[in-house]
Design brief:
about 170 residues; ten-stranded antiparallel beta sheet; mainly beta; three-stranded antiparallel beta sheet
Amino acid sequence: MLVVALFGLSVIESGGVFQTSAKPKQPDFSGSWTLQEPETVPPNIATTLIVKQTITDRTIYGKPMTPWYSAIEIERRVGTETRSERHLIGVGGGTVGGIREDGTPVDHKTEFSTHWDGARLVLKTATYSPADSLSSGHQETWSFGDKGRLVVVVTDQASGLEPKTWTLVYRRF
């Protein structure tokens, strides 16, 4: 087995397969997090987050590629309830209305996306009613703050109401 270290990047050759320990350039939010001031936020905000980011460093053909975070799994604990979700990073999508059995159109549609904005991870969801009017929207922007704290800025919007924004600070536990 051959091990080579270049500028902090190690490459291991074993049977013709190369593995790299290089990390993606974006932040890794993986870990267990607890909300610093849970008494100052609405009751539907998670007081505990368990986060795992997936690193992809191979193409679908098994060839090495520049590593990147391809997904984030979030377990949110709200009171006694646990909600699990998985977001593919760099992917957006949604749904569009169709036609009901009686032939009337469904104008409802949804959108979602998860993408990097520099060193911040942005998760968005939105629901639209007829005429593409926003019915509801939710956005989270994740970043690191002072002392390695996880800062999540949450903005919720609802039709006819002013957007509400909370800045949540979590610490590792």
